[in-house]
Every structure is written in structure tokens, then in C-alpha cells.
Predict the 3D structure of the following.
Amino acid sequence: MFDPLLFMDCLDVDNFMHCFTKQCVKILDQVAPVKSNLSIKKKVCPWTNEVTLSLKRLCRKTERLWKATNLEVHRLYLRDLVSSYNEMVENARSDYIRQLVTVNKKNPKVLFDTINSLVCSAAPVTPVFCEADSNTLLRFFTDKIKMIKEKIPPLLCGTPAVIEPVSSLWSSFKSVTLTDISALVTKMKPSSCSSDVLPCRLFVKVFDVIGPWVTKMVNLSLSTGVFPSTFKHAIVEPLLKKTGLDPTVLSNFRPISKLPLLSKILEKVVSEQLSLFLDQGNIHETFQSGFRKLHSTETALLKVSSDIMMSADSGKCTVLVLLDLSSAFDTVDHQILLRRLRDEVGLSGSVLHWFSSYLSGRSFSVTVNQIRSESADLLCGVPQGSVLSPVLFLLYLIPLGKIIQGFPDVSYHMFADDIQLYCSFKPTELQRLSSLVQCLVEIKHWLSDNTLQLNEDKTETLVIAPDDSIPGINQYLGDLGQSVKPSLRNLGVVFDKDMSLVQHCKQLTKNCFFQLRNISKLRKMVSQNDLELITHAFVSSRLDYCNSLFSCLNKKELSRLQLVQNSAARVLTRTNRRTHITPILKALHWLPVSSRINFKILVLTFRALHGQAPPYISDLIQPYTPTRALRSVDQNLLTLPHTRFRTRGDRSFQAVAPRLWNDLPLSLRSMESVDSFKKQLKTYLFAHAFA
């Protein structure tokens, strides 16, 4: 199919991509030539088929006959036909939904969109009808970044971060084989872009033919240190930030950037080699949990909440500050990023040249309703929608952690561009808050020097202390005192001044019952197995989100969450509220909420002990080593930390994890595989819950 002679003179990657695209288009024109279709098809329901359409036509024909004759026999015949038609449509819709749920079990986006389209009102369509309107959106997105850049103060020359000498250098990429590229294509999620020469599904099907040429393109780019220019143009599709927002207000839209599939394959190859280099050089920021393997919002919040609870147990107060950056990914300075990659990461040679080529010459256009705007240059920011953007942004923030470490009284944690600062102190040591205030000043200086803007309107502060101590603490916070709130949302979990998560449980319960009301509308459309899958996707996933933090919940809040699970079981099994719930949960093989919390904590503990968790989680638990030879020396026990209060230190992960772990039988504590451990642990907890 491909003519090798066309590629003989392609010594650079841009010429190679031109020939590759030309060959693909030539073959497509031969096999599937483009045809114009001027007919406008009526929008029909996706579950409509020929059988339902033929029965619908028969109903219309019979209706006309009855109106012409006005005979009772024709009316009764029409009634029977309409009843049969409605039943057939109901069955067709159920089959369609069942097939969608089965096919997209591991594709949450499609599953959520499908269910929402059935139970919720349709979102308003973006009112764009001409190229001028697309250009308006284009100018809005570009002007937004310009305005943010203009608001950033000039260089403030804060305390420079200490740059440690780079221990290793990376100057050249490793070439890849066809097997490597094939493995990447198999694992990648199907996502097409309008600039793709081949649609994603077709690309996968014909990969055996084009695979060698794709591999050659990747190796040519890696060896020459040049990123193909055809991959540098992004197609931006605006998406409403929330359902129900006014589509005529441009600020309600979030730009969703799409890049060619071949670009993502090339970036994935580079990303894997870059990650290996960063791991070997231990270049990652320890307290950065965004976009990193084994890290999550849950591990980040678990570390922060455990530190706060243990500080409260020792009689300390804590001030937690959440910082928000304005469009941080879009304001990254390319020259600063390249210097950081060279001086602090250790990139050089063709590798550094490749990243320079990757960042330069980028552009984008906005497409809405298949109408594309003109093109605009991207002069700053990491490419949105790309594979490498997250890791490049994390490397851009490396000096920030070093600056915060210069203040011993201030602890911190980051999740991508979400920054948390917290300072613990005795009520008699309020002067320590000056370190927090000064640290925030240095952070502002560093952000300004690195073309990032702190959104002070969204900066939130939480004081975790007794009520009588809060006024005195606020006096030492300076400008931060204006941002103090009784509770705040931290990575999806609502923290309050008592760290009781009461407000979070109330919001969670309300959200889950809303989802249950929608799910109940689907009971006639789907089978019980599919309904259970939907229930887990919409309700159980919410109950399980960051539930390792729920060890601090009191009995009232646990009962509130258990009521949600009980209601979900009743909706699924169609039982009334008077029926005893325990046999139903047991028949469904559902662990109660309290057992699910213990399950999550124990799995995290197992991962921490086996090197499958972030280091900051592993540091929270310590294996028990007796001072003299005892029978417990080989029991795989954990050390219980000394705590003073049951409602504070006893509810932290540091105390709960060892207590639950030591209560497990030795056979569970001695397991090596996490999958086997999870399976046996669920059996163990299930037996105890329904003993």
C-alpha cells in the first residue's frame, strides 16, 4: 500500500510527515472517496430500528383508516397496535441502554453521559452559527491569558531557590521498536481529532500496515530532536463548565484542546523515557501528588489530615491555607521552563532541543458546531490536552517546594497547581504564624518571577483550633485573616475547624440521594445487573471517594452514610423501607460503609508496606521491632503511636492503620500480592460484618 520510494528523500521529520499524510489521503481517496451528501436526516432515537419503524408506519396507517371509517373495530385494532408499539420501543430502549452499559463498563465518561442524557434535561447548545462567532471565542480565550499576564507584577526578586547540582544528564533518546509502539497503541484510549489524517478506530485497524512507518517517524523525531510542525496545531472545542450555565456568557466555557493521535503516540514515548530518567535521578517533588503514579487526591489529603489530627492531639492549633493559581498551565514561560529542564532536571543535547522544538511554533483554533475559527499563536503555556503537559508543569514548580522548605514551621502539599500550606503551633506560640505569612510573601514573589498569578480572591484559610483561640490567631494572620472561613473544600473533601467532616457528609448524602432518584427512573429500562453497575458508578463511587479520611466520623455521620447505601440497596432490589436491610446487603455482597472505610485504610497500609504508596504515606507507619527477642518479632505487626485523645490522635491514619492492621490474622498480614490481599480482606471483613 505504502510506496517506500516516497520516503527515501525524507531526512527530516516534517518532510516524512508530509509524505505519510499524502500517502494516507491517496489511499483513502481510492478506497473511500469523499462524497457530498445534501440530504438532511431527521434526528431519530438511537434505539430506533427497522422493526419499530415498520410498526410505527402501520400504526399511522391504521389511524388514518379509523379516522376515515370511524368504526369501533378499527379503533380497537389501533389501540392494540399502539400498545404493542410502545412495548416494543421500551424493549428496544432497554436493549440499547444495556448494550451501552456493557460496552462502556470501563469508560466512565460515556457511561455518565448516557445516563445523564436519559434522566436529566438536555444541556443548552452552544449558539455558534458562523465563523465570526468562533473567532469571538478564540479572541476571548487569547485575551483571557493576556489579561492574566498583564496583571502579574514585574520581577520582585524574592529569595531565590537553592539550585542543587545536577547529578545526571540526559542528552539523547533511546530508539523504539515496532513492538513498543504497538503496545502503546493498544493501551491508549480511543480519542480522535479533526486534524487526524486517519480516524482513531481506522488507525488501530490498519496499524499492521502503517506501524513500521509510524515507528520510523517516532525514531526520526527522537534522533533529530525535532517535533513535527503538523502536530503543533490544536483544535479547541469549548465545553460548558457546568450543566445549566448560560451558553451566551463566554466565561462559562472551558477550552478543551484536542491534538492529533500521532502526536500523542510520540509524546507517550518521550513521556515514558522522561519518567524513567526522573525516577532514577529522584528529581520529583516529594510532596507533589498530581499526575504521578501511586499518588492521588486521597493520599494527599490523608497526609495533610493525619498531620493536622496528630498536631491537635499534642495540643497544637493549625492554620491551613489553600492557594489557587489563575490558569497556571496557560501562563508558563517557555524560556524559564527550558532553563529549568537544563539546569535543574539535567536535559541536554538532542533531548533539550526536542523539548525546545516541542514548545515553539504552537497555535490553535476554535471549532464549534463544525465551524472553525482562524488560527492564533500560543506564545506561552504548556500545550493543553497533550501527554507531556502535566509532567512539564510539575517540573516548572520544582523550585517552589524548595522555597517553602526554607520555613521549618510551615508544612505543605501540592496537587498540580493546588497548593496547601499549614502551620501547627501551641496556643502560646502565635508568633510562629509570622513564618506562614512570610512564606506566603516569598511564594507570591516566586510566582510573579515565574509568570504565574496567585488568585487571591480564591485563597481560603481554615483555622483548626478551639473557638476561644480563633480571634487571637486571626490577629496574627494579617491579610490572611480576611480569607478565614468556617469550612473549605479541599480537593473535593470539605474540611471544617474540628476536622469532623460533618459538613462533607451532609453534602455527600444530599448528592447521593439526588443520584438515587435519577437511577430509580431507569429501573424499567435496564436489567438488575446493569442497574447495580450504574449504582456503583453514581453512588458507591461517591461514598468511596477519599473514604480513608472517614475514620474521624462519629456514629451519627456514619449512620447517615449507611442510610445512603441502604437506600441504594432498596432501589436496586425494589424492596420497601420496612424490610430488614441486613439480609439484602448480605445477598448483594456489599460491605457496610464502616467496613468499606476499614477496607480502604488497610489496602493503603498494605501498599505502603510493600512500596506501592507515596513515601509520605509509608513514613506514617512503622513496623514493630521489639527491643528483645519475642514471639511477636515475626508477626508483621506495626508500631502504635502514642496518642492522648480519642477524638484527635486516635482518629488519624497514623493511629488507625496500625490498630486495624494488628487486628488482622497473620495469614492476611503475610500476603505479598495486593490483589490476593484485597480479595481475602473483603472476605474477612464480610464475615465479620455479617457474623
Observations:
- The chain has five domains: 50-103, 133-285+347-382, 302-326+395-496, 502-590, 595-689.
- The chain has 25 helices and eleven strands.
- The first helix runs from residue 13 to 31.
